[in-house]
Structures are given as structure tokens and as C-alpha cells.
Design a protein that fits this description.
Elements (H helix, E strand, L loop, with lengths): L33 E6 L6 H13 L6 E6 L2 H14 L4 E5 L6 H7 L21 H4 L6 E5 L3 E3 L3 H5 L8 E10 H4 L15 E11 H6 L2 H15 L9 H8 L3 E4 L15 H13 L14 E2 L11 E3 L25 E3 L9 E3 L5 H11 L6 H16 L25 E6 L6 H13 L2 H4 L2 E7 L4 H11 L5 E6 L2 H13 L14 H4 L6 E5 L3 E3 L3 H5 L8 E10 L19 E3 L4 E4 H6 L2 H8 L13 H4 L2 H9 L3 E4 L4 E2 L9 H12 L13 E2 L15 E3 L10 E2 L10 E2 L4 E2 L1 H4 L8 H5 E4 L5 E3 L7 E2 L2 H5 L31 E3 L8 H8 L8 E3 L7
Parallel strand pairs: 1-2, 1-4, 2-3, 6-8, 9-11, 13-14, 13-16, 14-15, 18-21, 22-24, 23-26, 25-30, 31-32
Antiparallel strand pairs: 4-7, 5-10, 6-7, 11-12, 16-20, 17-24, 18-19, 18-20, 26-27, 28-29
Helix pairs in contact: 1-11, 8-9, 20-22
């Protein structure tokens, strides 16, 4: 933890050994090479310049140095030219990660299937495969990160005996194994949770022993374990599998050869205690403050040798543009400090980052490489990692959508939005209209046309409500659903075992209701929010497809279908599913190809679809049928645009594992669990460059944001959104004014046309479903709150005095009552009160 002589930050670049000019090496005095390997995917690796310069400057025999750089093929030529300009006599060799299929091996162990995006750069895992990438003549190699600088002759480190071990590293007892991985995992049972780890920024490797002991295979084994269990270690960590592979079999190197953490600004409580004990043992006073990163001494003391290598690990690299620092009570900036004279109480401290400047600033300036801030660097690194992994950039951001040729759109430029609503209190309908209007430009607002389709009994009431809430210049058409057609359709559906109301299957009849001049429409569910200009989505180029849908790779086709069925031929088992309710529809093509009839042929328990679906429940749901129908006919839109499932109380195991990998690889860390549902990209004010969702759907469960929570116990099961994991309902309520709640709840009108509202205590409320499963004292069920796939779990609610079970359900959901009644079989003397609001009956 100590440093040798400190160069002046204001002085010139330190000259290489023997006083030669910058970038010029001295004559070799030894025949053996010093092999140094570095891997990076940065387009402009400024840290690499400081690493090479500091290494050559401090080495007594710089001509013996040879740098092996593993870099992307597209940046290899430019980087080689840049390095030859600054360091003309330095020996540099460049390698491809594709050599012997290394890249493919790494990516295969980072995802479950080929459609899954990977956000971690495979270059971070190149260390495990060094002997395969380098020449077989290289028997020893020093692995370094690009954020280190040398303060002593690297020959001393390179010649350190490894005594038969495959690698040597610096032990880090400020961090324990339990802080890096889940030591309670069954696979880690043989490891001591309190074992000290090592820092992988500096490793000395014996390539022969590395191959004999199969270290690469060991790393792959632990990556596979984490891939399948999802909770052994963080998905963006290349250190954890390396630790598990090397902890018992690595040589401890002197601590002075890796002084890490200089790019951090805060320490954990365990780190504070470790540093406090360390400095107490050497008689140095240390200010133990969480916002005072470790004090680094820049001179030998207490028998400790001077530090020989500084490692700026952490977010705040010294070459990044300085950001406003937090300030402690004593007025000092919160960042790592370095001291030259540890024994002197009056010694002045300097910013550790200033020690890096003489090695890298001038070289970066000579090449014209720009310095970025922390956030900009993170975005560039994420894009480079995605490119190296073959992940499309749409997985990192919400990119603009390719727009249709104007000749293919209506001449009047109308933007048609269709919403099907069947609730007497249309909270969702009001929110989706209001959020759409709030984000559309004033010019496009005049072209916006909402087509609201409701049951005939609710047409007048819904029309009056919307007329009171929205201004008259907003074009909203409230149309009654065709009852006679829906009755006939209901009979056909019932014949194949589907009791779901046809109102919930608009793709079967929507083309019959919309006006003939509507060529395309955006079908929005009433549980959605629109946080972007809807005209961009409405005008997307379909390229001959009949629809556009938002992809969701947390579920694959293999979850729904028997892949051996003849109707599944031509479809892939690993094909990603998509949202079947939020769809951009080419109405003319839908009519022309008679796709409503084709969809009807895929629904239900029919001879044609026998054994097609993996379960009987899937056969009577519209989701698998729409997936199969539109798989080849729909344009897939970026998944990052849409955050869905925000009304659910939990994920399935497969979904939880997927999202844990998806966000974990991007550095968003949270405990692996099924509940609550987490949507990191669902925020109130989305930004495209950071990949925030532009559309939200409160779908899939009972936690609709407009439904009251019965008590505080409901909150833990509700979905959480955003960077700080707040209740997702707060996003929705920004688009429904409290003044309009009574108007939305109105169930009838008096003779003068005044809306009559229900009393507040009659509104349904929802509680944690797991409480209901364990026998909550008061039970009620609201079928409108149940998942669209059918009743799966009673919902605990406060239903008034007594043991009465109050059920408020519209006629569209009456069929579900039968399945719920079966669950009550054998329980006597439970009065059943069906309360039907006016206008529904």
C-alpha cells in the first residue's frame, strides 16, 4: 500500500530508463523477454497509453518488454498505428479473440439461448484463455488491466518464482469471498466465506501449469453453474468464476504490486475496518470515514516496502473528465488521497489521480483522444461490450424506428389509435389517452384519432365521461361493440372450450368495426401508458408485414408449444415471444388475408390443434395462438421500448432468471427473487440513450395501479420501477387527476345527465395474494383484477362485515365464476353476493 518516488504532476512526462527521450527504449541487457498481456475493447484506450509509458519508463531493460494486446479486429489497425506513433520502439503484438473460437465459448457461457442479448464484454473474460490466444513459445506472461501504472521495474515482478502454481496474484483481505459471490449457494459449500480474495488486475501466469490444471475449463464450469442457477454471483463479474477456479491454487505475491481501489470514492464498512486494522498495525493514523477512500501512503514506513504498482480500479478513472465531488465536513473532496511521508503528521496529501497524469495525459493529447465524463464513458463501454458480444444496439437504447414511406400512409396523415375497454370505471382508458396526448406534438395532436370500443350498455356513459375529462378538440370516437356478431363468436369459442368473452379477443372482430378509411391502427390495451410521441410508432415501416409487435425474450416459444407438432413446423423453439395485446395492425392486410379466421382456427381444443400446446390452459388462451399466427407475419420491434407485466406480483423462475441476467450484465444488481417484479427501465421521464422504456403495460396480474391497496401488506408484492425501485403505480397516477376520480367511477346519470359516482368504500381493493393463500380472515374476489388467462389465485380484499364473499364482476367475466366456484367446493354456509353495477347487467 506504499509508493516509490512521486513525480511532480506539473512536470514533464517521466523519461524512460537511462534518460532516453519519451517513447524510446534502451539497449537490452538480457535475452529473456518480459511478456505483458492486456485485453480491451475500448475504441480509444487512454489507460493503455499510461500503462505502456509507465512500464517502459520504470524498466531498466525496456527493449525486453513485449506487449500482447487482445483487441477488436475493427480497431486493431488504427490502434497499432497510434501506438507506433507514440512508442516507436516498443514491441507490440495484437491478437483476435476469435482465435480458436474463444469468443464463441465465452458468449455461450453468458446466455441460455442464442436469442438472448449479452451485455458483458467477452474481452473481460479473455484472461482464462490466454495460453490459447498467445504463442505456445510463451511460458510466462504478466496480465495487467489498462487502469494500472508501474512505479518500479516490472522485471522484479515478472521473475517472481511461482513454485509450481498456475498463477500469482496479490491477496486482498479488505474483501472477502462472501462479498463477491453467494457463499450460501450449494455449489460453493466447500469454500470459506471469510477467505481473502485476490484482485485480477495483476496476475502472473505460468501458461504450462495453467493448461495442465485446465483453468479455462474450471472457469467455464463455474460460469455454467451461475448461468443455470442465476444466483451464485453477479452476472457482469469476470472475477467470481476466476476466484472459484484459482483460490486454492494461486501464489500470493507481495502486496506492493497491486494497490487497488484508487478509482473509488466510497468504502464499505468491512473495507473500513480492514484498512483501520492495517494502518493501526503500522502506526499510521487513518480517518475511518465511509466517504474517505483508503489513504495511500507514497513512502515506505513501518517495515512495509514502497508501493510498486497503482491500480485505479473503480468508476472514477483518472483520465475521465472530473465530475463534481462530494465534500466532507472538513471541506476535502471525497476521493483517494496519497501521502509521501507517512511518519509526518503535517505531510500534505495529493489526489492519487494526479499521479497518473504524467504518464497518460500528454500521450492522449498527442493522439487527439478525447476525455469523457463518467456517464459518457459508461455508455461508450456498454456499446463496445454489446458490439463485441454481437448484441444489437437496440438492446441498449430505445432507437428511432424506421418510418414508412409517405405514399403508404393515409394522405391526411391521421394517426389512428384503437382502445378496447369493458370496465364501467375506465381508469385505464383515461390514463392511456391522457399519456398519449401529453407526449404528442401540437402539430400531430390535430391528426390524432382515438377509436374507443366499449360494450353497448356502456357507450353513452363512457362517452359522457370522456367528454367531461378531455377537451372538445380532441377527436375521440366511442363505438359500441357489435353485440350480435360477438354473441355468434362466443358460441363458436364455447364450442372449442373457450369461455373468455370475445371482447377480450379484439383481433377476431376489430377489422369489422373500424371505419373503411382506417388503413392501419395502433391497438393499445387499456392498462398501458405512452411516454413518447405515438406518431413514430404508428408510422413505422412494416416492410410487407401485417403487424408490428414488441419482442420479449424472457419467454420463448418452447414454453408454449410442442415443437414436434406439424403446425409448429417452420417455427423455432428458441424464438422470443412478444406482447400480443399492444400491436400496430395493417387493417387492410388483416382483412385481405382473412387472418381473423386463421386465428380462430388456432384457438381452443380442436382436432387440428390437438397436442400443439403444452397444456390445456394454453389451448384456451389467445396468447399462444397469436404468437403462432404472427411469428412470421409481424415485424419485431425492440424489446427495450416496452416494459410489461407491471401488475404482476411475481415472475416465473425462467423469467426471473432471464431478467436477473439481463440487468445483472449491465451492472444493475439486486437479489435474485421471484417477487416483486422489477422494471429498471420504467421511469417517469424516459431517455432514449439510456434505454428507458417508452411504453408501459400494467398487465398480467392483480396490481392494477387504480385498484386500492387494502393495507400496507399489499405493497411488498407490487411491482417496483426505476433506478430507485419505487412503486410502479406512482408512474401511472401522474396521468389521472384526483379531481377526475369521482367522474371516472360514476356508474349512472340522473335525468339531467349528471354523472352519479359510487361511494368510495365500494371500490375494490387488493392485498398480497400470498396472504389469501394462508387464510386471510376476510376474502373477496374481483374478476376484473384477475389475470387474463383465468383465475389462478383468490385475492384477499376487505368486503364489509360478516363472512360474505362479495363479487363485483362484469358479464364478460361471468364464465370465470365457474372455475372459482370449484375451489369453494366443500365449504358450506358461505353466502355469495353478486353485485352488478347499473349498465352492466
Amino acid at each position: 500500500v506504499l509508493l516509490a518516488q512521486t513525480p511532480s504532476p506539473k512536470g514533464p512526462l517521466p523519461a524512460p530508463a537511462r534518460g532516453l527521450p519519451f517513447g524510446v527504449a534502451s539497449r537490452s541487457r538480457r535475452s529473456s523477454r518480459i511478456e505483458i498481456a492486456v485485453s480491451t475493447d475500448e475504441p480509444e484506450p487512454i489507460g493503455l497509453l499510461a500503462l505502456i509509458n509507465s512500464t517502459t519508463s520504470t524498466c531498466a531493460t525496456p527493449r525486453e518488454l513485449r506487449f500482447h494486446l487482445i483487441v477488436p479486429a475493427e480497431s486493431r489497425a488504427q490502434l497499432k498505428q497510434s501506438l507506433s506513433t507514440i512508442f516507436p520502439l516498443v514491441s507490440v503484438r495484437m491478437y483476435s479473440l476469435d482465435l480458436t473460437g474463444v469468443r464463441a465459448k465465452i458468449i455461450r457461457h453468458l446466455r441460455r439461448h442464442e436469442r438472448e442479448p449479452v451485455f458483458v464484454s467477452p474481452y473481460r473474460f479473455a484472461l482464462a484463455y490466454l495460453p490459447q490466444l498467445l504463442s505456445t513459445s510463451i511460458k510466462r506472461v504478466l496480465w495487467l488491466h489498462t487502469d494500472v501504472i508501474l512505479r518500479a521495474d516490472v522485471r522484479e515482478l515478472f521473475d517472481t518464482p511461482l513454485d509450481g502454481f498456475p498463477a500469482g496474484g496479490v491477496e486482498d483481505c479488505a474483501h472477502r469471498l462472501r462479498t463477491t459471490l453467494n457463499t450460501s449457494h450449494a455449489a460453493a459449500a466447500g469454500y470459506d466465506p471469510d477467505a481473502c480474495i485476490f484482485n485480477s488486475g495483476v496476475l502472473l501466469i505460468d501458461t504450462t501449469q495453467w493448461l495442465i490444471l485446465g483453468v479455462a475449463s474450471r472457469v467455464e464450469f463455474w460460469m455454467e453453474i451461475n448461468l443455470r442457477s442465476s444466483n451464485l454471483y453477479k452476472h457482469d463479474s469476470p472475477l467470481a468464476p476466476l476466484l472459484l477456479a484459482l483460490l486454492p491454487i494461486y501464489k500470493r505475491l507481495p502486496r506492493a504490486w497491486n494497490i487497488a481501489g484508487l478509482g473509488r470514492r466510497k468504502l464499505s464498512s468491512e473495507e473500513l475496518k480492514a484498512w483501520q486494522r492495517f494502518w493501526q498495525n503500522v502506526g499510521v493514523r487513518y480517518d475511518a470515514n465511509p466517504q474517505a477512500p483508503a489513504l495511500i501512503l507514497t513512502g515506505a514506513a513501518g517495515g512495509i516496502p514502497a508501493a510498486k504498482l497503482l491500480h485505479f480500479s473503480g468508476r472514477f478513472k483518472p483520465w475521465l473528465t472530473p465530475v463534481p465531488s462530494a465534500v466532507r465536513s472538513d471541506g476535502r473532496a471525497v476521493e483517494a488521497r496519497c501521502r509521501e511521508e507517512p511518519a509526518s503528521a503535517s505531510a500534505s496529501d495529493v489526489r492519487c489521480a494526479s499521479l497518473w497524469v504524467p504518464h497518460g495525459d500528454e500521450a492522449a493529447g498527442a493522439l487527439g483522444w478525447s476525455r469523457r465524463d463518467v456517464q459518457g464513458a459508461a455508455l461508450v463501454a456498454a456499446a463496445a461490450a454489446a458490439a463485441a458480444s454481437g448484441t444489437h444496439t437496440s438492446e441498449l437504447s430505445a432507437p428511432p424506428l424506421q418510418q414508412e414511406d409517405l405514399s403508404q400512409l393515409p394522405s391526411d396523415g391521421a394517426v389512428h389509435v384503437t382502445i378496447v375497454a369493458e370496465e364501467a370505471a375506465p381508469f385505464g382508458l383515461v390514463a392511456v389517452i391522457n399519456s398519449t396526448v401529453a407526449h404528442v406534438s401540437a402539430e400531430r395532436l390535430r391528426a390524432l384519432h382515438f377509436h374507443v370500443i366499449v360494450p353497448a350498455a356502456l357507450q353513452v356513459l363512457t362517452s359522457r365521461k370522456l367528454g367531461r375529462i378531455f377537451p372538445p378538440e380532441l377527436l375521440v370516437s366511442v363505438t359500441a361493440a357489435p353485440e350480435s356478431r360477438l354473441d355468434k363468436l362466443a358460441s363458436r369459442l364455447y364450442a372449442v372450450g373457450i369461455a373468455t368473452s370475445p371482447m377480450e379477443l379484439p383481433l377476431l372482430w376489430l377489422h369489422l368495426v373500424l371505419p373503411a378509411d382506417v388503413h392501419r391502427t395502433l391497438l393499445l390495451p387499456a392498462d398501458s401508458l405512452v411516454l413518447t410521441d405515438i406518431s413514430e410508432l404508428h408510422g413505422v415501416a412494416l416492410n410487407g408485414k401485417v403487424a408490428a409487435v414488441f419482442e420479449d425474450c424472457s419467454n420463448l416459444f418452447e414454453v408454449y408449444f410442442n415443437h414436434e407438432h406439424k403446425l409448429f413446423q417452420g417455427h423455432g423453439r428458441a424464438t422470443c415471444a412478444f406482447d400480443v395485446s399492444l400491436i400496430l395492425l395493417d387493417v387492410r392486410a388483416w382483412r385481405r388475408d382473412d387472418l381473423a379466421l386463421k386465428l380462430l382456427e388456432l384457438l381452443g381444443l380442436q382436432r387440428r390443434t390437438e397436442n400443439l400446446y403444452l397444456s390445456q390452459a394454453l389451448a384456451i388462451s389467445q396468447t399462444p395462438a397469436v404468437l403462432l399466427l404472427l411469428d412470421k407475419r409481424a415485424l419485431r420491434l425492440p424489446a427495450r421500448w416496452l416494459a410489461r407485466g407491471l401488475a404482476r406480483d411475481s415472475w416465473s423462475h425462467l423469467e426471473a432468471a432471464y431478467w436477473h441476467r439481463y440487468w445483472g450484465q449491465q451492472g444493475v444488481h439486486y437479489t435474485y427473487s421471484l417477487r416483486p417484479v422489477r422494471a429498471h427501465h420504467a421511469v417517469a421521464s424516459p431517455r432514449r440513450e439510456t434505454g428507458d422504456a417508452l411504453l408501459l403495460r400494467f398487465s398480467g396480474g392483480v396490481y392494477k395501479p387504480w385498484v386500492r391497496r387494502c393495507d400496507a401488506s399489499s405493497a411488498p408484492a407490487a411491482a417496483v420501477c426505476g433506478r430507485r425501485w419505487s412503486d410502479c403505480a406512482s408512474l401511472w397516477w401522474q396521468y389521472v387527476a384526483e379531481a377526475n376520480v369521482a367522474m371516472i367511477e360514476a356508474h349512472d346519470t340522473d335525468p339531467s345527465g349528471t354523472l352519479l359516482a359510487l361511494s368510495t368504500n365500494q371500490r375494490p381493493c387488493v392485498a398480497d395474494p400470498t396472504l389469501a393463500a394462508h387464510g386471510a380472515p376476510s376474502k373477496a374476489f374481483d374478476a376484473d383484477l384477475a389475470p387474463r388467462g383465468g383465475v389462478t389465485q383468490p385475492v384477499a380484499a376487505l368486503a364489509g362485515a360478516g363472512s360474505a364473499l362479495r363479487i363485483a364482476i362484469p358479464n364478460s367475466s361471468l364464465a370465470r365464476l365457474h372455475s372459482y366456484g370449484k375451489k369453494r367446493k366443500g365449504k358450506r354456509n358461505v353466502p355469495l353476493q353478486i353485485k352488478v353495477p347499473n349498465g352492466i347487467g
